[in-house]
Amino acid sequence: MAGYFIFVEIENMKTTGTGIKNWSKESRPRERLAEKGPMALTDSELLAILIGTGSGDSSALDLAQKLLGITQHNLNDLSRLSYQEMTKIRGIGPAKAITLQAAFELGVRRRSSEVRQKQKIESSKDVFEYFVTQLGDLPHEEFWVMNLNRSNQVLSLKKISEGGWHSTIVDPKKVFSGALEEKASAIILAHNHPSGSLNPSNEDKRITLKLRRCGLDMELPVLDHLIIASHGYYSFADEGILDL
Question: What is the Cα gyration radius of the chain?
Fold first, then answer.
């Protein structure tokens, strides 16, 4: 996650906040990044570069540490902080919050771009990497279908339905009509659990087996169904639940 911050232009940022300008050159985050590269810096130092300047008695590094403290140093949770939550911290104004959100979004897009370059699905992990940037952090549940050709290459991703915190309604006709339009040879199902739980509910199992049977009847097999969260996934195929 830390590597994502390299996307943000830092040359014009001035680390003039309290404290840092008086540090030795080799201790300043910007100078250390220029000399040793971004991987040599801590999360706090990378955030301090993005924040740019301190405020009052707090240096940019102090503000970075306050931000990390809110999420117990979890960068995934930090990236999900809203603009309003960031600006509640004294010293993090609109410009700093926008810069941080832009940096995190570039990180997400980089990951998504890398995944799209690998078009062939070879494992449940490949499926997870396709969907996590879209589903991992959503506050509501969504159900998606991945349409594949005979070589297990991705033809398209289609959102089937959107619901609330606990569930979403899945119409089998909508699932398979889209696949038929795409002339898909197989499909993979995916939906998220906003709670972060990766345990399938009874309804998850019911709809999975229902769609699996429908797919077999139509000679359009359901290869897998993944439950997605930002921190991981559950694969029905890996767990043997798709066996009929």
Answer: 22
Q: DSSP code of 11? A: T
For the stretch 82-107, pLDDT in tens is 889 899 989 999 999 999 989 888 87
Give the strand order in the sheet containing 154-162.
154-162, 142-148, 186-192, 222-229, 232-235
pLDDT in tens, 165-215: 556 788 899 999 989 988 999 999 999 998 889 999 999 999 999 999 999
Higher-confidence position of 111 and 35: 35
Q: How many CB atoms lie within 10 A of CB 216?
A: 12
Residues of the chain with CATH 3.40.140.10: 120-235
Query: What is the pTM (predicted TM-score) of this model?
Result: 0.59
How many residues are given for the chain? 244
Pairing of strands 186-192, 222-229: parallel
Summarize pLDDT for 111-120 with one digit per residue, the tens: 666 555 557 8
Classify residue 150 as exposed, middle or buried by CB count within 10 Å of its CB (0-12, 13-18, 19+).
exposed
CATH number of 120-235: 3.40.140.10
**Residue ranges of E strands in the chain:** 142-148, 154-162, 186-192, 222-229, 232-235
The identity of residue 200, as a single letter, is P
